[in-house]
Design a protein that fits this description.
Strand order of the largest sheet: 1-2
Helix content: over 70%
Number of helices: 22
Number of strands: 2
Shape: globular
Strand content: under 5%
Structural class: mainly alpha
Order of helices and strands: HHHHHHHHHEEHHHHHHHHHHHHH
Length: 621
């Protein structure tokens, strides 16, 4: 039998080689300068532009990029197509494509005043290209908010202990922000006290689990959960398909994200992400150490071997009963574990506005993505230990496996399995909550650039004009969360996850396109293969993947078969509406992406290959 440790070894070998070698080359390639003034110093305003210590910013960045996708994606892909193809895409694709994508997005934003990838491409191809990319990013963020809020709801339903622990953890983050920035408390002692309190939140959650409605997960029956609302909750939108407790948590998470995104970064974002980084490092690093110790010393409660229910390779179309082509769907299913367009929004959104030195970009940009790849490897290992009997179950079946398998792995270090499972569930939720409100904040940044807002200024959105409402700190979150909520409660969340994956990966391709255009215009002597090859690969994969989802999954399987009587059970009206919206959204995303690729390629041709063209320097304005 194959031991789980080989999954971790494969990832560590390629990731170490990538960081020690390739990231060093990339730093020299984009000419990072430790003495160059960063946007955080140039536009420091105490709100968005705030110079941050490297470990603090690494914690924020890692927490923001590491949502549910690098956990759900590898687990689902490994169950459907086998653990070997999933591992190969993570171990090889991450250092050569995903980490490059994150690093180039962060470095490019540094050289353009902390602006987004939409602004950067607009500098070189014009306003139309900028607007197309910004709208593409904004639509993708709505999908991000939808699926991440959904995943939090699923975890809270399966682990009500985490509902309590997460509430305590958010309160501690606010207190830590006040301690650091208002009372100027000493950093190291504060870190020790508040990090210990965050870990203590796990105990509080286990003692006082809460749920909005009666949880449906079997494991919760003996927990003594405090249920806040009586009744079955059939009136909650989405309860029929998701369950009342899961469906009720979704709007709560979205309201939290809307409020958190409107607060200054020092109030919640920075302190919470710094504190959560210790949870994340303990979860990922502790799991890696536990796998090594458990394998070498045999200290786990059960052997850390790959369960027989998980195949090494299940064929091109996946396991029996799941008709899904490995190419291109495996790549967009694994999503953020290898490469994610959402990261380009974080890198060129919040992170670039807080970078203290340009040279910090190597660890935070490239290294942060390798950390997410390691998380994906841990998720795949948790699946391998626990097994997965229902790969067709999608998100709802995948998420509990991460916590359950993680609980078994942590027994190698003497942690009781029940405690370890709750801790791993909290690790997952800390990723998700951070990513969700960061996504809403980034969506506001996108709209600020679409509508127009001078750098360093903010708008509350309370003025009586459309532009102000669209970009407003207090009003823009509604523009994002309302359509996201409607998409989730339609009952079509399974295809929604796939659509999110495809859109997210296609956004990554466009971010790589932006980096390629920037480099081509910056210096005619610089090679373009580093960003151009991954861009071409991702455009091909994602356009084909989205086309499958649009034409086969939505238009044919849902709409055509429904209206021709080909379905055993006709779809509800809201499900039909969701399928139609998803099909239209997918076509819009494909069209925008192909138009941008055409515009970007034409710009590169003009700069590099036309005899009469001249090189355009990166803007310093």
């Amino acid at each position: 039998m194959t031991q789980v440790i080989w999954i971790i070894v494969a990832a560590l070998v390629t990731f170490t080689a990538g960081y020690m070698g390739y990231s060093r080359y990339l730093s020299q390639f984009v000419e990072l300068d430790e003495d160059e003034e960063t946007p955080a110093h140039k536009y420091e305003d105490g709100q968005e532009y705030v110079p941050s210590k490297k470990p603090v910013l690494l914690g924020h960045h890692f927490s923001s990029i590491a949502g549910g996708a690098p956990i759900v994606g590898p687990i689902t892909a490994g169950a459907v197509w086998g653990w070997v193809p999933a591992l190969l895409w993570i171990a090889i694709g991450n250092p050569l494509m995903g980490a490059v994508h994150d690093f180039i997005s962060l470095s490019g934003s540094l050289r353009h005043e902390g602006k987004s990838i939409g602004y950067i491409i607009g500098e070189y191809v014009g306003e139309s290209g900028k607007q197309m990319l910004l709208w593409f990013a904004f639509l993708t963020i709505i999908l991000v908010v939808a699926v991440f809020a959904l995943v939090v709801g699923i975890v809270f339903n399966s682990y009500p202990e985490v509902s309590t622990a997460s509430t305590v953890y958010i309160g501690l983050a606010i207190l830590f922000g006040l301690y650091l920035y208002q009372f100027d408390g000493p950093f190291i002692p504060g870190t020790v006290v508040f990090v210990a309190a965050v870990f203590g939140a796990v105990w509080v959650g286990m003692e006082y689990p809460i749920a909005l409605f009666e949880p449906t997960a079997e494991r919760t029956a003996e927990l003594g959960v405090t249920v806040l609302f009586n009744g079955a909750g059939e009136w909650v939108p989405g309860a029929a398909s998701l369950g009342a407790n899961t469906a009720a948590w979704i709007p709560v998470v979205m309201v939290y994200a809307a409020i958190a995104s409107a607060l200054p970064v020092w109030v919640l974002l920075q302190p919470r992400d710094y504190l959560s980084s210790f949870l994340l490092y303990a979860g990922v690093g502790g799991s890696v150490v536990a796998i090594i110790v458990g394998t070498l010393l045999g200290t786990s409660t059960q052997p850390l071997i790959i369960d027989s229910s998980l195949g090494a390779f299940n064929g091109f179309w996946g396991v029996e009963g799941v008709f899904l082509p490995l190419f291109p769907l495996l790549f967009i299913t694994i999503a953020c574990g290898t490469i994610s367009g959402f990261h380009s929004l974080v890198s060129s959104g919040t992170t670039a506005k807080q970078l203290d030195k340009e040279t910090d970009a190597r660890l935070i940009g490239y290294g942060g993505m390798l950390g997410e790849g390691l998380l994906a490897s841990v998720a795949l290992s948790a699946l391998a230990v626990w097994g997965f009997a229902d790969p067709a179950g999608g998100i709802g079946a995948a998420l509990p496996n991460f916590a359950s398998g993680g609980g078994i792995i942590l027994t190698s270090l003497g942690v009781p399995e029940t405690v370890g499972a709750v801790f791993m569930a909290l690790v997952l939720v800390s990723f998700l909550l951070t990513s969700t409100d960061t996504a809403v904040r980034l969506g506001r940044y996108m709209m600020e650039e679409i509508v127009g807002l001078p750098a360093g200024q903010t708008d509350t959105g309370l003025n009586a004009n459309i532009g102000s409402i669209a970009r407003g700190r207090y009003t823009n979150p509604l523009i994002q969360t309302i359509p996201a909520y409607l998409l989730v409660v339609s009952g079509q969340w399974v295809t929604l996850w796939a659509l999110f994956g495809g859109a997210n990966q296609l956004l990554a391709a466009l971010a790589l396109l932006t980096g390629t255009v920037w480099i081509a215009n910056w210096d005619a002597a610089k090679q373009l293969a580093t960003t151009g090859v991954p861009m071409a690969v991702m455009v091909t994969i994602t356009v084909l993947g989205l086309s499958w989802l649009v034409f086969y999954e939505n238009l044919y399987r849902n709409l055509y078969l429904h209206f021709t009587g080909g379905l055993e059970e006709p779809l509800a009206v809201e499900a039909l509406a969701s399928s139609a919206v998803q099909a239209v959204l997918g076509l819009v995303l494909i069209t925008l992406a192909l138009m941008l690729v055409r515009i970007g390629y034409r710009n590169i041709q003009e700069v590099r290959y036309d005899a009469d063209s001249t090189t355009v320097e990166p803007s310093d304005d």
